[in-house]
Amino acid sequence: MLLAASAALTLALSAPAFAHDYKAGEIVIDHPWTRATPPNAPVAGGYLTLDNRGSSEDRLLGGSSPVASDVQIHEMSMDDGVMKMRQITDGLAVPAGEAVELSPGGYHLMLMDLSEPLKEGARVPLTLRFEKAGDVEVELAVEAMGAKAPQGESHEMHHGAAHGDTDMPGHEGMAEKSAQ
């Protein structure tokens, strides 16, 4: 009985250490994560959920990270039966009272020109830039190379096409094979 109580107390006290939520103004950033990359990989995707709990729209404009020369917003979409990726240059709207998910196969962040491989278990510093909420510092949890969602995530995230199936220069060879 004492062991069970001790384990419960340990879990309760350690829960904040596993929290993945950040806040910028009225925007709550939930579960920021990325995948581990092989050596010499030029890019990595960044995934998270933006929950606008305010009464006015905001926009995610981009970001920065010490491990990348640039952090861009990208979108995967079907075009004539081919999955393509394009950069979103005018920012991503986060409507009032709504959540926007950045996930594999949809909207996501692209960490460009990585300075080092991302290793599973590490945390990658990232600054997100919002039009109204300003800048917010988060950390991307680095998951396994084939991860489809952050470890411990209870819901299934979108399955998407691989980054290698794009018409974007510099993204060749980034295909990730996954069993679906």
UniProtKB/TrEMBL annotation:
Entry annotated with the keyword Signal: yes
Secretion signal, residue range per the UniProt entry: 1-19
Family matches, as InterPro entries: LpqE-like, Lxx211020-like, PCuAC_sf
Annotated stretches, region: Disordered: 148-180
Taxonomic superkingdom: Bacteria
Gene3D superfamilies for this protein: PCu(A)C copper chaperone
UniProt KW keywords: Signal
Ranges of compositional bias, category Basic and acidic residues: 153-180
Name of protein: Copper chaperone PCu(A)C
